[in-house]
Amino acid sequence: HDDLLGYGKLNAAKFFENVTGQPPEDASLITSENQQEDILNQLTEPKVLIIGIDGVRGDVAEMVSSEEDSAFGRMKDEGAWTYASTVGPIAISGPSWSSMLTGVWCDRHGVYGNGFENHKLSSNPDLIDMIESHDSSINTGSLVYWKPIDSTIIGPGTADIQERFEEDEDLHERAVEILRDDSSIDVLFLAYDDPDYAGHRYGFSPNSTEYVDAVKLADERASELLEILDERITIGEDWLVILTSDHGGGGANNYSHSPSTTTDRTTLMMVRGGDAISGEMYNSVVVDVAVTALTHMEIPLPTGSAELDGRPLAFEPNSEESRVPNCDLPISVTVVTHAEEIAWASMGILLLAASTILIYIRRSKTIEDDESQQSSHH
Question: pTM for this structure?
């Protein structure tokens, strides 16, 4: 900021042109120090980029971080990080994205599965809603793949720019466009999906080439976003970047992230910029995302019964651990959530029963044949 202020004093008109892309209509309008300071203050307002990537295992993220020009590796080198962040007791997209964006656990927002039955999101606003309610002049954006984030968790019309995409490639192109061309954007939330798709199809495993490649591609896209922010940071913008996921996978079932084993619930959490203290974070949880973003934006956190469950752990590494939620799944949600596993288990039971009956019939037939042969001998 001091360097920019000095530059602004020396040549305010040129500085204005570099920032806005066009010269001022009247350079005399920005010759005073106060007017130059106003321009600089607009640049140095806190800003946040949240890069959410669906279905990234913590150990696979750590593998990918060793790649050349890795965003994961760079975030680790330049900020607070962990490959052992937990998404809470339920490793399912609905509860995890809800916890990430509201800053409260499933026993408060009421999302236990992807059906969102009887949820309480209306009384637990998402991050974008909290920011807009505090100051509607803050320019917010949300670009997502998974429809329920857009339709239910954030809700229609909440962000100034709110778009959903059928392909991560298109989502990423739009994110690049906004960060590169829209100087007014203050908060941008992204939710990619490719690793989750690859995991369900090819297996959430460090031994699955397709899954690892999908995580690498997400990492490459994040790297491009960081490079764009580098350019904006050089002119004084104060960007905080949070990079995380909604769950891992491949615990008990290689092609799923149920029934929420430790491997299913463990992912990465990385924070760079602002007041982030570099180094490994411990006891990181998904509800920290919203609180960290609000803290950087200098927006007062809710108090009393509305107090959020997360902490700005990247800024305050000695924070007390987040409370342990009581998120026992209702039986109806359990059935819906684990429908695939239940179906396979039921099929297995039926096959076992059929095999038992077949063996019984064959044995009975053998006994009958033996008795018949014995009778014929007599």
Answer: 0.81
